[in-house]
Structures are given as structure tokens and as C-alpha cells.
Amino acid sequence: MDKITRTLGRSPETIAVFRALKLGDLLVAVPAFRALRRAYPTAHIALIGLPWAADFVDRFSVYFDEFIPFPGWPGLPEQTVDPAETTRFLTRMQERPFDLAVQLQGNGTCVNPMMALLGARLTAGYYPESLPQYCLDTALYMPYLEGQHEIRRHVQLMEFLGLPSQGYELEFPLTDTDCLRAENIPEVQTLEPNRYVCIHAGGISARRWPEYRFAEVADALAAGGYQIVLTGTASETAIVEKVKTAMKFPAISLAGKTDLGVIGCVLSQAALLVSNDTGVSHIAAALKTPSVILYSTSRPEEWAPLNHQLHRAVLESQATNSQRVISEAWTVLGH
To answer: Mean pLDDT across the stretch 87-116?
Structure first.
């Protein structure tokens, strides 16, 4: 019997998962979400997340039944705190006490006090081992180990709670509607499956691999016969244009023309992704699209895809010129 069922005296009927972060952060937690759902197949499971994550819950409806927007909390940098809305959020949570609230946000120094205010019958998650006062329940909170891989970390929490692992594989479900929207984009219609490479030079990090280096990689792959597709959000259009302008070969720009589903369909038929460490790199890992990922501020030991044959991690310090990335790209492509 798992710890939750034993402590509660029954299987939980309602569960809230707190992870109010970005796309990549949620994708690497999917194996933990899968383990939670398999352990409690009839439970009503809600994700408490940033406003954008409503789309994530829709895509992962096999694991989640509800999305609860998170209004922010002092000390969390992802959004500005509205004290009145945060108070209303806590009141709403307390008015419908969940059987279980699971903290997957981080080490707990900032958010565990909030977890105690959610009104759940049980809470579980992480605490910093050096600060035991942040441990809300010694049976249900495990030490947060710095430097651990994010995928393994969250699966291990599930195992700590007595829920069997369902593997470390990522997922990114695609729908017929996603692919239909992709097919309706004129630029996508010109792409030959497995004969194009996606280049994603944007990302949320303040420091990224330079655009001209991405252009050098793109030109080398284009010279080898691959179409080049430059991807990015609307806010990354200027970055994409810098890459395109620096290139010698022609390239297709999809900047601002894709949503998550469309970029998933484009990546699913790509021969390769070359990207900074950002959300699309985890989509590629989920879709088993080969990739070469540049790490400027994050650590590959914590964030890189686990399949090192299909996905290559390159530190910015190892890529002072483009040759290392080009070499890794050709290796992954089988040349």
C-alpha cells in the first residue's frame, strides 16, 4: 500500500499538483504525472500552474482533469504577485479541500509555507535537507537533492510515496487538428519529411548561443542537402531574422506562425533540431526527433534528454565556434 492511501485511510479522490513553471519544466515532469495517474486512475487530478498551462492540461487530458490558474506567490519570479488575487486563490482552495496536494515546484523554501495554506488533507513534495523546518510531513516530503536530473527527481518522489515508476519517457500528444493547422501553413507545405532541419535560436534564458553561430550550423547542414526551417515565437522574430540574414543559404522562417501543436507536428517530421535549451528541445525529446542542444546557463546533467545517442548536449563553453555543433549534428544524422 502506498503512503498516501495508508495515511489517508483510502485512495485519494482529489489531487492537486503544483508546478507553476514553463513548458520545458512541465514536460520533464510528465513521467511523474503518468505515475500519479496510473496509481490513481479514477482520481480527479488538477494542475495548479501559470496561466499559459491551460493549453498543457488540454493536451494532457489523460493525466489531468482540471486546470487551476496560479496567481503568484512572494519570492517566485515567474509572475507579478497580486495580493488580493492570491488571497482569493487560497480561499477557493480551502473551500474545496483536496485529498492530496503535491509540490513539484522546487526545494520548498519558498512554496512549502503556501502548501500548508492550501487546505489539503495531505501535502507531499520536497524540502531542503539542511532546513528541516520546511518539511511539512516527514513521511511525505523527501529531501530535494541539488544537481539531480529533473526527470528522475520527480519520478523518484512518486516512488518515495510508494507509487510505481512508469518509466522516464517524455510524451507530447499530437492531434489531427494540430497537423491540419500545420498543413495549412504555406511554408510547411514545401517541406519534405526527414529532409529538413529545425533551427531554434531563441529561448527564455538571458544568455543564448549567438545567432551567427546558428547561421553557420544551418549553412553547413544546408550545404549537405537539408532544408533549413527557422522556428520561434512571435516575440523571437527578431532573433530568427538575425539568423536568416547571417545565412548564405535560403531558409524558411516559421517565426510567429506556430503554436505548440503545430511546432510539434513540424518537429515530428524533422530530421534534426538544433536549439538552445528551451521548451522545443523537450518536445523533440518527447517525439524522438534527434537534436543537438546548446546549454548556456542550465546544466545538461539536470535538463538534457536522457537518450544520449539520439540527443547531444553541448555546453556553450565547448562551442566557442560552430564546428563542435556541426560535428554533433552530422553524427546524430548518421553521416
So the answer is: 97
Strands (E), the chain: 14-18, 44-49, 66-69, 100-103, 122-127, 141-143, 196-200, 227-230, 252-253, 272-276, 291-295, 311-315
For the chain, the domains span: 3-160, 176-333
Q: Where does 40-180 show beta strands of DSSP type E?
A: 44-49, 66-69, 100-103, 122-127, 141-143
Mean pLDDT value across the chain: 96
* Same fold flag, 3-160 and 176-333: yes
| 153 vs 16: CA distance, rounded Å | 19
The predicted model gives 267-290 an average pLDDT of 97
Give the domain 176-333 fold. Answer: Rossmann fold (3.40.50)
Threshold 0.85, pTM exceeds: yes
C-alpha to C-alpha distance for 317 and 211, rounded to whole angstroms: 16
Query: Apex CA 24: angle with CA 20 and CA 25, to 5°?
Result: 40
Q: What fold, for 3-160?
A: Rossmann fold (3.40.50)
Q: With both helix axes pointing from N to C terminus, report the angle between 211-223 and 237-246 in degrees, rounded to the nearest 10.
A: 50
CB neighbour class for 132 (10 Å; exposed up to 12, middle 13-18, buried from 19) = exposed
Give the integer Cα–Cα distance in Å for 95 and 169. 36
What region, left, alpha or beta, does residue 206 occupy, with left being phi > 0 and alpha being psi -120 to 50 degrees? alpha
Instruction: Say how far residue 51 (Cα) sits from the centre of its chain.
Output: 15
